[in-house]
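quick one: adenosine-5'-triphosphate bound model?
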Amino acid sequence: MEEAILELTELSTHFFTDSGEIPAVDKVSFTVHKGEVVGVVGESGSGKSVTSLSILQLIPQPPGKIVSGSIRYKSENLAAANEKRMKKIRGNEISMIFQEPMTSLNPVFTIGNQMREAIRLHQKVSKRTATEKAVQMLKIVGIPRAENIVNEYPHQLSGGMRQRVMIAMAMSSDPSLLIADEPTTALDVTIQAQILDLMKKINEEKETSILLITHDLGVVADICDRVVVMYSGQVVEQGTTREILKVPKHPYTQGLIRSLPKLHGREEKLYSIPGTVARPRKDHVGCRFAPRCEFAFERCFKENPKLYNIGEGRESRCFLHSEQEGERLKDVTTNT
Amino acid sequence: MSQPILEVNGLKKYFPIQGGIFGKTIGEVKAVDDVTFHVREGEILGIVGESGCGKSTTGKSILRLIEPTEGEVKFEGKDITNLRSEEMRKLRRDMQIIFQDPYASLNPRHTVEKIISEPLLVHGMKSKENRNKRVKELLEVVGLSSYHASRYPHQFSGGQRQRIGIARALANNPKLIICDEPVSALDVSVQSQILNLMEELRDAFQLTYIFIAHDLSVVKHISDRVGVMYLGRMVELAEKDALYAEPKHPYTQALLSAVPEPDPDIKKERVILEGDVPSPANPPTGCAFHTRCPFAMDICSQVRPEFGPVDDQHFVACHLYNDEQ
Ligand SMILES: Nc1ncnc2c1ncn2[C@@H]1O[C@H](COP(=O)(O)OP(=O)(O)OP(=O)(O)O)[C@@H](O)[C@H]1O
Ligand SMILES: Nc1ncnc2c1ncn2[C@@H]1O[C@H](COP(=O)(O)OP(=O)(O)O)[C@@H](O)[C@H]1O
Ligand code: SF4
Ligand code: SF4
Ligand SMILES: [Mg+2]
Ligand SMILES: [Mg+2]
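yep, here:
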């Protein structure tokens, strides 16, 4: 296995609001290795974005705060780094792109202007060299007429082109890690295919590690090596993409995959997980998924299960993996 | 085969583009540009296509929530394009619409009871007692409880709000429901609940749906036939199995190949389309897809291909097939 670029250990980020403390990210641990594409999947509110924003210390504080845990990037703990150090890391060693590129581009400056600023923030080059570099980056990400586009404004570009510009900007410093939070969610499928292809190319050619946040298991299958599944602020399962999608072990992951309509094959009636997605709550007792889980038993409503190690780098947060519940587990796996 | 409940012929909706200081019309957005199809009684017709291709405009023009620029819409054999508003209002009992964002379409200041009973009142259910009874009945039909009647929309989750929207649409026993992206805003685990509910309701009340969505897997699951739109035009329409197994139009082929599937064993030959969807204010000449089509020929930029049958019940607008006829 390649060296670890990023290692989260029991990271907890909470929000302190009028209606109480929200454990949006609750003891989350996972690792991203060099050259690896790791997906974080989960439904809305499961804590994906808060996890990724925590890595770069971009959580609005207050109300948010990293309350415990560490974020090891190469050899330093980012959770303990000061703002001066973080400024050096952001957009240089670790770059981030978001779902809606329009909100991260400034509408009153040209594309070239913004790219030049981003480049000159981290590289001591002349304006002219920075512009040349901007044009070159735009060409790499497949923007036609790059020489003209640098003089245009964000609103003059389509959503797909804006996302390419964001990727070009993010890649201009040759980062070791790219964090992409739902980079294709706002795009049409044919444009999504272009962007995923571009991200694969960058990952292969530059060995850039990618942390990809998404709610789409199709996107995961397409580009991720490994997957972390989140539910209500916690990691519920992780493993290689193939294992997670082919033989999911956690009842939530199993339910999620079964409730997807398939493009191939035909299902009479869709499986559906009853109830609604649980918001993270401080006073939650028991397994977060218990109210919706068809395998839940007494213990699930009393204790929160730990993450059980269930094989090579594979983990699942469910009592069915504990020894005394081994018999139940057999029933479950034969059921699905 | 059942009768068409709805026939749409040559439907067009052009939106004026205003500009200059006097707000003069300086152009047109061809949101829907000569679309023809029919919907059979009891079927679910899916309509797919990328953002801005005219799906919602088609739906709204059919109900005359916006006035079509040209074309004919027949409901149960009767031309409704020129009905006066009073007659149209009566007809809306039979034709309902459900929107994508259940939150935006429910008045936040009204209780669920008020929201669902409003269409009952509009269509003449005078007795408050009867209305309340009907509201409770409807809430149960869509999987909510009668005690929810006194609550407000913000007290519900996205999936529950969509159930409220469905209950309201069902209030007057409609025949046709146009569902405009009814599950697009929902989480996967909730989406399947709503899809199942919609199928159950179709069977229970002999409903007909036009199901608009951009998610090709969802449309495949729920539809009997599927139409594909591109830049205001219908480019392909077929039984769903035929369309998904053997897409004929180059755009449909590219669209299907671009969908990432949650199965690592499915290895796809992906057709990556170059460039973006052109603006409907200035659509390409001839076949609107010719600027991105991997098979484009000389004729494609000059002549708009007819939308015609290439197989039994399989309609395509593409010169690749016109030649063979
Ligand atoms: N009221 C309006 N005035 C001007 N242009 C409009 C209006 N409504 C829609 N359009 C334009 O018509 C075209 C079709 O829009 P429509 O909403 O029907 O697309 P759609 O297929 O439903 O897209 P989406 O998937 O994003 O919902 C778009 O270019 C849109 O910008
Ligand atoms: N600024 C904030 N203030 C209070 N709560 C927040 C804030 N940002 C996020 N949260 C809460 O944190 C949880 C996780 O959110 P998020 O990470 O954005 O979810 P997602 O998985 O959809 O990206 C949610 O319950 C959300 O309501
Ligand atoms: S711990 Fe219990 S409730 Fe939680 S996922 Fe496992 S079986 Fe279900
Ligand atoms: S008509 Fe020509 S450009 Fe249009 S889809 Fe067919 S081959 Fe392609
Ligand atoms: Mg998010
Ligand atoms: Mg729409």
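The pocket of adenosine-5'-diphosphate (ligand 2) is lined by residues A 15, 17, 22, 24, 42, 44-50, 60, 63-64, 279-280 (CB under 6 Å).
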